[in-house]
Amino acid sequence: MNRFKTSKFKNTTPKIAKKDGWINNVRAGSFSCQGNHIKASSTLVAFNTEQAGGGMLGLSSLKPGSDGQWTVTQISCHSDLVTDMDFSPFDESLLATCSGDETVKLWRLCDPELQPPSSPELTLRPGQGRLELVLFHPTSSGLLAVGATKVPLIWDTGRQDAPLAVLEQHGDQLQSLSWKPDGSLLASSCKDKMLRVFDPRAQLTPVQSAKSLQSNKDSRILWAKDDFLLSTGFDMMRSREVRLWDSRKLSSSVGSASLGTSSGMLIPLFDEDTGLLVLAGKGDAAIDCFEVSAAEPFFSQVSHCLTDISTRGAAVVPKAALDVLSCEVMRVLQLTDSCVVPISYQVPRKNSNQEFHEDLYPDTVGTTPAMSAEEWWKGGNKQVEKVGLNPHKQHKTMAAPAQRKEPATGGSKEDPARGCSTSSSPLSTPSSSSAAASRSPSSTSGLSSSFLPSPSPIPSARPIQSMLGQASKFRHIQGAVMHRDTHITNLRGLNLTTPGESNGFCVNRQRVAVPLAISGGQIAIFERSQPGRLPDTALPTIQNSVNVVDLSWDPFNPRRLAVAGDDAKIRVWQVPEIGLKETLTEPEVLLQGHTEKIYSIEFHPLASGILASSSYDLTVRLWNLEAGEQVKLLTGHQDQIFCMAWSPDGKLLATVCKDGKVRIYEPRKSTSPVQEGPGPEGHRGARVVWVSEGKSLLVSGFDSRSERRLCLYAADSLSSGAIAATNIDTSPSTLIPFYDPDTSVVILTAKGDTRVHIYEIATEEPYFMECSSFNSPEPHKGFAFLPKSECNVRDVEIAVGLMLTKTAVEPVAFRVPRVKKEFFQDDLYTDTAVCWEPALTAAGWLSGSNGQHKKISLKPKDMTPVSEAPKEAPVRKYLPSSVYLEEKTDEQKKDELLSAMVAKLGNMDDPLPQDSFEGVDEDEWDD
């Protein structure tokens, strides 16, 4: 831009849409990947969500529905985080996604108000590990650039077996890819500070490369006009910057601009027609706009826009969707934690909203591909035909929605099973016209013709429930901290460094046991029946004499507490019936046998007096507390034992170990595992719990990238591996699961977290049904749950837990919203086990006897089950008008009117008012 020439875009103004123009109900997560987290076509918007560990995408329309609202739906795309996505430039409904699950998938999307697709049109498996980037070619149909961790690949979707080219491996993490607008070259930026330019058809090595970036932090590369490249990144002082490069000479930049110091990476969005560059920083609330020129000044700032919410991602809307009559030259979609905010860049002009200003809108690239992937690979350099944006003129090459015609191959039909438009060729483009019937499908589709499958019959309509998928009746569960009157406050000196294998504290129906950070391994005992503020003076404690490693209440004796110490001994304490009134120094039982420090302890769920313990000596030992002796020794572990769990029937014991194995023991029959299978890939920690009436095992652990993950195993076939898995989030603490067998709901949280995750576990797909989560105001130090009998069924509580904070123990109730709360919700409350009473003695279980808990109903006597509630007749929302105004005939109205008039006139025989007046005497007239 000549410094003496005024730019017509210098006054371009950003206008943030009003809140009723935002796309709400968005749950955008914060993920570590190289994508921009949001992409838009001329009709649809796709974005990352935090659900299913990032494996799902949110989908909405660019314009609101007929009711003025936006519908947001979710698509289950991958089994791992969706790292990047891109819409085809030639098909507004074709979306490519890549993921940490090492696949690229292509999706045929439809209106979000309809049922989203359940399966992709195409899946590519490059076999290069985690995939970070995916990008459609700008001129050819069916051609993709795919970025693995260090390797860019060029892929023709018509040749699914192998890529067209595997370009030279980069020295470190590949951070971004960008096609030149004419489709001839591909540029990349890398963590090794190198910028590279490839000509994939000529050679697999770069035609230009240089160590141009100053920092190895996140960077982005983007083609500008002609031979110029734009890059965003950080300088040596960690200030964010944008630079302009000549792709023919990458050794030094042409121009640069600094945007201050911040840790968030800059997302560049460039419009070739206007030369406008928008820069949105992740985590920032500011969005900058520059005009880019090949001559000085290279970067001219146009605007600095401050938004209400910080940015998670950003995307530019295609030119075909702009409001050209309002002089809108660019539109950016800002992705935030809870919404998508449109920001319109408009040039102030007279007669805006009335006239089309041609000088602002040069012809732009159309939506018909110039060639197929095969033609491009053979050396073709055809360019996409350009079209005008004047709405008053007809352009047959412009793929506007009004110009869509049914394909000549058999028309388009509505697929009742999926709820979106399908044609006889699944990947034929909606905009292909009958005139193009003889043309190769690749000329009108985002994919090449060799991929297109043969026509398939439309499946028959399915019930609406199967179309929508299985939904949990607990999906709207609500967690709430109970009233402060129920809290135990003013806790001091808590031990917040218990091992990861321990829950940190333990509770039963009567008491709470909390380790203290006081020498001698002291433990405080609080009575649940006496909430309130604790005195500032010292309290009586249990003096364990050594540091506490783990502790657990006997489920059948609310006074007996087992404590494992770091001296490899287990001490069993008996708390007085009236509570701890004086310090205890002598345990009731002392168990010795382990040769190294103990990891964890676990009471038997059915037999009284049976305790299991795991240790650094890689053994699991079973103890009979009544006899005070060891009764079983289990071996077979090769590394640290993270967790143990008894099966609901008490016959089996499951363990998960740092050696990457999940094992099942039958202690009464064998000291070796009866089953063994692969466990979590990560080695930070893991937990295991039995679910689905003992038919499955749920393991909470980490994957190879240290992301928290849930895995579901069939208990009778551990060697087959997990039957289902879902990623949760990224955090260093192990998720501790609490499973409610009555509802199949699992509640998970970790020490130091603020969020409590809730899922319903199913025995068939989708296996994990996510429910609403609970967020605590501050990080908690532990979470423990009470027996089901402690739930208030009148408030529809399905679980009650105690949350340990730095200074308090706070009860948290998990409730299911219901309308008819005056009835007992028998669909939620099945008969529950009396888990506080033993079903066997220790001697009986050791001799081979089995038992089960008796069950009771939680229904109060004065409540009626909701299944027996009387059926209510439908109530009319509004009463008929006759209630308010009785209809009258014309004669009745006439009579009432006459009567009212006569009443006003009065009786004709009555004297007039003046007749009652008194006059003067006759004598007075004589004067």
Quick summary:
The protein has six helices and 67 strands. The protein has 927 residues and is mostly beta strands.
Intertermini distance = 115 Å
Helicity, in percent? under 10%
- Number of strand elements: 67
The number of helices is 6
Described by strand count, sense and barrel closure, the largest sheet is: 6 strands, mixed
What portion of the residues fall into strands of 2 or more residues?
35-45%
**What would the principal axes of the Cα set say about the shape?**
globular
The gyration radius over C-alpha positions equals 36 Å
> Structural class of the secondary structure composition?
mainly beta
Mean pLDDT: 83
Uncertain stretches: 394-468
Helices and strands in order:
Layout: E1 13-16, E2 38-40, E3 44-48, E4 56-61, E5 73-76, E6 82-88, E7 91-99, E8 104-108, E9 122-124, E10 131-136, E11 140-141, E12 143-148, E13 152-156, E14 165-166, E15 174-179, E16 186-190, E17 194-198, E18 208-211, E19 220-223, E20 228-234, E21 239-246, E22 255-261, E23 266-271, E24 276-281, E25 286-292, E26 299-306, E27 313-316, E28 328-335, E29 340-346, E30 364-365, E31 371-372, H1 373-377, E32 386-387, E33 412-414, E34 421-423, H2 464-468, E35 478-481, E36 488-489, E37 506-507, E38 511-515, E39 522-527, E40 532-533, E41 541-543, E42 548-554, E43 557-565, E44 569-574, E45 589-592, E46 598-603, E47 610-615, E48 620-624, E49 629-634, E50 641-646, E51 653-657, E52 661-665, E53 675-678, E54 687-691, E55 696-702, E56 707-714, E57 724-730, E58 736-740, E59 745-749, E60 755-761, E61 768-770, E62 774-775, E63 782-785, E64 797-804, E65 808-815, E66 832-833, H3 842-846, E67 855-856, H4 881-884, H5 890-905, H6 923-926
Parallel strand pairs: 11-31, 36-40
Antiparallel strand pairs: 1-29, 2-3, 3-4, 4-5, 6-7, 7-8, 8-9, 10-12, 12-13, 13-14, 15-16, 16-17, 17-18, 19-20, 20-21, 21-22, 23-24, 24-25, 25-26, 27-28, 28-29, 30-32, 33-34, 35-65, 36-65, 37-38, 38-39, 39-41, 42-43, 43-44, 44-45, 46-47, 47-48, 48-49, 50-51, 51-52, 52-53, 54-55, 55-56, 56-57, ...
